[in-house]
Amino acid sequence: MRVNHRKMGSKQLTCKIGPSILNADLSNLHEESVRLLADGADYLHLDVMDGHFVPNMTFGHPVVKCLRAKIPDVFFETHMMVSNPEQWITPMADAKVNQYTFHFEATENVPLVCRKIREAGMKVGLGIKPKTPVDVLEKYIDLADMILIMTVEPGFGGQSFMYDMMPKVKWLRSNYPELNIEVDGGVGPETIHPCAEAGANMIVSGTAVIKSKDPKQVMEDMRETVEKELNKCC
Ligand SMILES: O=C(CO)[C@H](O)[C@H](O)COP(=O)(O)O
Ligand SMILES: [Fe+2]
């Protein structure tokens, strides 16, 4: 299935805030997630790391499945920082993940992975690491529901936002007005302006939300900034 993101149709893009629980107290994953959702999160961005594609490990489908059992209705995106992303499609679908976001750099066969994710009933997210140029995505964009532009080297939370990734977001937004574009890494109140101006509408924020005394306010402020920019163009 192909989605034509180039056309300027009637689809109104909305801002979605997806906190990353990477730097939360993972022994309290359920409580932390419930708190973030009560504070206004639109979806949960679950960072899955395999210690191979990135030099760190987090959790896999068994944990996601347990979390899903306690939180049945919320949109789960798994950010798959794994080699061989094909391997985990079925288990993540079984865990009732809504969107499976994998990395361009992790596979030789992007179309095949996109197709398998869709066949398993999930939305397709396709991401690139900072050193990967955005134009490699051109022939795959219509196979995806969302493009992820990493604004840090994947692997760890709490890193500094890479401002020089913003031209990638701008390029995508100017060519694909209806595309969902996500930014991830070092995003918070201090760095949301360039993301919004460049055209990102799906905002992942870990440390800035989790470590804040007022996560609700942080998410509200980021949403307001993004929505202001989205409303400018239409
Ligand atoms: O994918 C990630 C790291 O690879 C995380 O989603 C990201 O880093 C979020 O955390 P922070 O906002 O603290 O950077
Ligand atoms: Fe992530």
CATH topology group: TIM Barrel
Which H/E pattern describes the elements? EHEHEHEHEEHEHEHH
| Structural class estimated from helices and strands | alpha/beta
Strand order of the main beta sheet, please?
Answer: 1-8-7-6-5-4-3-2
What binds here, in terms of ligands, is:
ribulose-5-phosphate, fe (ii) ion
Number of domains: 1
Question: CATH homologous superfamily - what is it?
Answer: Aldolase class I
CATH hierarchy: architecture:
Alpha-Beta Barrel
CATH class: Alpha Beta
How many distinct beta strands? 8
Mean pLDDT: 96
Major sheet: size, sense and barrel closure?
Answer: 8 strands, parallel
Beta fraction: 15-25%
Helix content: 25-40%
Q: Which terms would index this structure?
A:
234 residues, alpha/beta, TIM Barrel, 18% strand, binds ribulose-5-phosphate, binds fe (ii) ion, metal-binding, EC 5.1.3.1, D-ribulose-phosphate 3-epimerase activity, RibuloseP-bd_barrel, zinc
How does this model look, in words?
This protein is α/β, with parallel strands linked by helices. The protein has a single domain, classed as Aldolase class I (TIM Barrel, Alpha-Beta Barrel). Helix content is 32%, strand content 18%. It has eight helices and eight strands; from the N terminus they run βαβαβαβαββαβαβαα. An eight-stranded parallel β-sheet has the order 1-8-7-6-5-4-3-2. α3 links the parallel β3 and β4. The longest helix has 19 residues. The mean pLDDT is 96. It binds ribulose-5-phosphate and fe (ii) ion.
